Amino acid sequence: MSELICVGAIAGSYGVRGEVRLKSFCAVPEEIEAYSPLSSEDGSQSYSLTLTRAIKGGFSGYLGGVETKEQADAIKGLKLFAPRDRLPSLPSDEYYYADLVGMEVYDTGGVLLGTVKSVQNHGASDLLELQGEAIKGTALLPFTMAAVPTVDLEQGRIIADPPEGLF
What we know:
Layout: E1 4-13, E2 20-24, E3 38-39, E4 46-47, E5 49-55, E6 58-63, H1 69-74, E7 79-83, H2 97-100, E8 104-107, E9 112-121, E10 126-131, E11 139-142, E12 150-152, E13 157-160
Parallel strand pairs: 8-13
Antiparallel strand pairs: 1-2, 1-7, 2-6, 3-4, 5-6, 8-9, 9-10, 10-11, 12-13
């Protein structure tokens, strides 16, 4: 499990005074401010965050050390991370995406299907993107109780009952 969890990303500048456009990946989007200071993925940079307003597609706000539009433009795409211990603990049937990536996925018969490459959500529900030797490219497995009855974080594996014809 990762020590840092990605909670947001910079989408560019907002205005001319160093404000940034921010996408929040939190379940309650405005809670990203409570996890401040946030860091870069490698932990080399740390940023305090102050949200100023909700805007289309996210928030605008100030990051510590970013004072001009040019500085805000330069960090477009920067992913912001918070230490796991600052995030709330989850109910037993919810998971941080970062915990699922890299886990091995087995079918109900114990056959290895692949590993989780990413977790995607295109609106309807979460999908596990799987990659493996038996899969050409990748396969998308619905992350539902019916298709994924067991997630064992301690053992680092997922038991899946994939829909007929997926593999």
